[in-house]
Amino acid sequence: MGVWKLKSMIIEEVENIKQELCKISDFMYYNPELGNEEYEAMKLLTGMLSDHGFEIETGLVGKATAFRGVYDSKKPGKTIGYLCEYDALPEIGHGCGHNMIGTMSVGAGIALSKVLDNCGGKIVVYGTPAEETDGGKVYMADAGLFDDLDAALILHPADKSYSSGSSLAMDAIEFSFTGKASHAASEPEAGINALDAVIMTFNGINALRQHVTSDVRIHGIISEGGIAANIVPDKGVCRFYVRAKSRAYLDEVVEKVKDIARGAMSMTKASLEIKNYEISYDNMKTDQVLSDMFQKNMDLLEIDDLKPSRESFGSIDMGNVSQKVAAIHPYIGLTEGLVAHTKEFADFTITDKAHDRIGKGASALALTGFDIINN
Prior knowledge:
Aminopeptidase, Alpha-Beta Plaits, six-stranded mixed β-sheet, four-stranded antiparallel β-sheet, 10 helices, 18% strand
């Protein structure tokens, strides 16, 4: 059977299942679930995959809502991975469009499976929980769950359509200083001021900023700094996100930041505990060949507003996947001016335009998987 005939079959299959995909996406909108609590979303997504012949495994990497659905043609060929997200934001709901991400990836996997017996290979659809909070993909990447893939794909809704780009590697560092309490007026000399150590850490980091590359981002808060003005604070805690374009350079910057905190410890005589208070993200590495394939399929589907990749100073757990396997993380446009992580964004995901994009997005992902298998 010819390539164009098989591609037409993929597009037709997406149309056949589009209504069900949109129904699941809308259900997630009306029933948002926070990270690691996405039980109903997981049930719906895995149920649809199972109905189309995928073998389902849940509870991966110790996470109840992580899953893997596999369709194996039993013929030699490449292995394509589609990644689902389905966690919501507190109060806002699906203000990042994860209800669309999950359904587009499931739709892509199902549509591609309908022609897989003709071309060989395997499809794996991954459920990756808690992208907004706990980075489920990081644990899955560390466990080697993506190592056997030839390509990993995910598609994110946004205001406009953008090619896959980059993201910053990130470490979340907490500095906890312990001093000695005393009366701040009558016996200040008896105290060791942990808050002073925190403030010195901030000042040192501010001085560091002019000596790092322009991509570096360091931002933090004081989460504990004393209980009363007339008591020398014996506990001071500050937390920072430290980001850079590459993991290698980030590691250098993080060590400098830690040295600043160690210097503050030395100057104040407070003790210091350093820890990572959240998981670390690696930088996103877009595979350009894969990205070009995806762009051609977006053109084929007449999504002609695809913009070049935008510079990103955020961090995503897809970055950790991209360190293991060729990967892309493009964006599909909904409407200009739409801002992510807002109620307005969430509300737009149940519109006719968003439903159209679910179909187009699933088709673009599926067609790109087909091209990889046949390339």
